[in-house]
Write a structure and sequence with these properties.
Order of helices and strands: HHHHHHHHEEEHHHHHHH
Number of helices: 15
Number of strands: 3
Number of domains: 2
Low-confidence stretches: none
Largest sheet: 3 strands, antiparallel
Mean pLDDT: 84
Structural class: mainly alpha
Shape: globular
Strand content: under 5%
Length: about 300
C-alpha cells in the first residue's frame, strides 16, 4: 500500500470512527506529510519502515530550526495517532513513536479582555442594518455561550430553544452539549430572526442560523475578519480573535465564582485539566488587585 493510500485510510478512520472535524483531520495530514517531505527521494514504503531513531533525528532537526516545543508536541501527537493506526490495522508490527517525548513546555495563559472591553465590542455593530444585526447576534452568542467559532457558524435555527433560552451544540468529536443563552442574547437573536435573516438568506433554502451576505454558510475566516473590524471600531487595540470571547466567557465566569466543573461542561472540555487554566488567570487577577490596592503591598 502506498503512503497516499495510507493517508486516505487513516483520514477515513478519523472521520467515520472518531467523528473528527475536517480542520482536525487536516492538521494530522499536514504534520505527517511534513515528515515525508523531509526526504527528497522517498524509499518505497517509507512510513511502513521508518524507525524510532529516524524520528529522534527528525525532532532534533526541528529543535535546531527553533520550532516551538508546543508545535513539536502537537506533531508528535499526530505521529503517535497515525503509527498506532498502522499497528492496529497490522500494516506495522511496532509503533516507532513509543517512548518518544518532547520536553515539557509551559502553557501560555489566555489573555482575555475585561468586561468593559466586551461591552464596547458587543456594542460596535450598526443595529440598523441586516448585517449589523447578524453580527450583533453572533457576538452576543459567542460571549453568552462561550462557543468555538466552528460551533457558532454551524448552528442551525433548529438547535435553538428561545422560549427556554437554550441551545444544542455539537462540539469536538461530535459531542453534544446543552447551553443556556443569556436573556440579552435571546433578545438579539429574536430580533435577528425577525428582521434580518430573511433579508440575508434570500432564495437560499437551508437551516443555518447565521448566514453570509450572500445567504450561505459563513466561513471561520470571514467571522475572524468581522470581529477584527469591530475591535477597531470599538477602539480596542489588543489582539482579538473569536477565541478571545470564549476565553473571556470562561474567565469572567470563574472571576464571579462559577465552579470549574460547570465551566468545563459549558465549554465542552473533555478534561478538567484543560479548564483549570482559568483558575490561574483568576489568581493572577487577584494578585494584581492585591498589589494595586493593598496599602502595604
Amino acid at each position: 500500500m502506498t503512503d497516499d493510500e495510507l493517508f486516505t485510510e487513516f483520514d477515513q478512520r478519523l472521520q467515520l470512527n472518531e467523528g473528527l472535524s475536517e480542520n482536525t483531520r487536516s492538521s494530522y495530514r499536514r504534520d505527517i506529510k511534513k515528515l515525508c517531505n523531509l526526504e527528497n527521494d522517498l524509499p518505497e514504503h517509507f512510513l511502513l519502515n521508518l524507525d524510532n531513531q529516524y524520528l529522534i533525528n527528525y525532532f532534533d532537526k526541528l529543535s535546531l530550526n527553533n520550532l516551538s516545543k508546543r508545535s513539536q508536541a502537537r506533531m508528535l501527537s499526530s505521529f503517535k495517532r497515525f503509527f498506532q493506526f498502522l499497528v492496529d490495522e497490522e500494516y506495522r508490527q511496532d509503533n516507532p513513536t513509543h517512548n518518544l517525548k518532547i520536553a515539557k513546555f509551559y502553557t501560555a495563559l489566555p489573555k482575555p479582555i475585561n468586561e468593559d472591553m466586551v461591552e464596547l465590542l458587543l456594542d460596535a455593530p450598526d443595529f440598523d442594518t441586516a448585517l449589523g444585526l447578524r453580527d450583533k447576534a453572533m457576538l452576543e452568542m459567542l460571549y453568552s455561550c462561550g462557543l468555538r467559532v466552528s460551533e457558532l457558524i454551524n448552528i442551525t435555527y433548529l438547535d435553538l430553544d428561545l422560549v427556554r433560552g437554550g441551545i444544542k451544540i455539537i462540539g469536538k468529536g461530535k459531542k453534544e452539549r446543552l447551553i443556556p443563552i443569556s436573556t440579552e442574547a435571546v433578545a438579539w437573536l429574536q430580533r435577528y430572526l425577525n428582521d434580518a435573516r430573511s433579508k440575508l438568506i434570500g432564495t437560499n433554502k437551508h437551516n443555518i442560523l447565521f448566514v453570509s451576505n450572500r445567504g450561505k454558510l459563513m466561513t471561520r475566516q470571514a467571522f475572524w475578519h468581522i470581529i477584527k473590524k469591530y475591535a477597531a471600531v470599538a477602539g480596542i487595540y489588543v489582539n482579538i480573535s473569536p477565541h478571545t470571547l470564549r476565553h473571556a466567557f470562561a474567565t469572567h465566569l470563574v472571576n464571579h465564582g462559577a465552579d470549574l466543573r460547570s465551566v468545563q461542561s459549558l465549554l465542552g472540555h473533555s478534561s478538567l485539566s484543560t479548564t483549570q487554566i482559568y483558575t490561574h488567570v483568576a489568581k493572577m487577577r487577584l494578585k494584581k488587585i492585591y498589589f494595586e490596592h493593598h496599602p502595604r503591598a
